[in-house]
């Protein structure tokens, strides 16, 4: 009788363990789904970035590629673009010559998320000052109407790294009140009268606004963070490997693919 009771208990234990394993594999996708959300960066959205390399009108060449890291100091961007980068290309680079300032035209072509996913974008540089952008209710920057449709080029005027200016037909510069570096605060008339022309020199870490011409949609995945699955309460971690989402049970070491 004693042997039969233990045997009965053993038979009960195995199904319960199997049920627990099934519950974990079923509940984990539910937890992962809750950690996903669709992000829509609409046309006119401005992404604040910092250059990862130096760019200049004197040393950069047309076609040179570069990257810039999204500035996550703003909570809204840390939430949706944590550790993301933007990839760009030099479209024009003209060294300073005589009284003509150096000019540097940039374009942004690709958004790379922290998990390696990439999205094609059409972006151009814009200012990050209050005359250029406003902050939406969600904390994301939007271009003001007076700057949204402007195609701006960096020009080597003033005492700083350069200014953002519109280029008219024939290459003549039309200065705007969208300035960077130590040139901030100069008026257009002051700059045009200034004899201080030079090459554009954007140092590593220079802050740039990336103005999106078209909308971008993607799913934001909160990967790599420790959480609790709703049904089992098991501690674990979500992560992405070779483009697929997984859940790692930190107690058992079991890995569950979620797609």
Question: Which secondary structure elements does this structure contain, and how are they paired or packed?
Answer:
Layout: H1 2-34, E1 36-41, E2 45-51, E3 55-56, E4 65-70, H2 75-80, E5 85-94, E6 103-112, E7 118-126, E8 133-135, E9 141-143, H3 145-148, E10 152-155, E11 163-167, E12 173-179, H4 188-193, E13 201-202, E14 207-212, E15 216-221, E16 226-228, E17 235-241, E18 244-249, E19 255-257
Outline of the structure:
This protein is an alpha+beta fold. The chain is built from four helices and 19 strands. It folds into two domains: 39-219, Beta Barrel (Lipocalin), CATH 2.40.128.260; 223-259, no CATH class.
Radius of gyration: 26 Å
The CATH class of the largest domain turns out to be Mainly Beta
Decide which structural class fits the backbone: alpha+beta
Strand content range: 35-45%
Quickly give the CATH architecture of the largest domain: Beta Barrel
The spatial strand order of the largest sheet comes to 2-4-5-6-7-14
Number of distinct beta strands: 19
Whole-number average pLDDT?
75
Q: What is the 3D form?
A: elongated
List SSEs in N-to-C order.
HEEEEHEEEEEHEEEHEEEEEEE
Q: Look up the CATH topology of the largest domain.
A: Lipocalin
Number of helices: 4
Oligomer: single chain
- Report the uncertain regions: 7-34, 177-186, 223-234
Helix percent reads 10-25%
Keywords: Signal
Signal peptide: 1-33
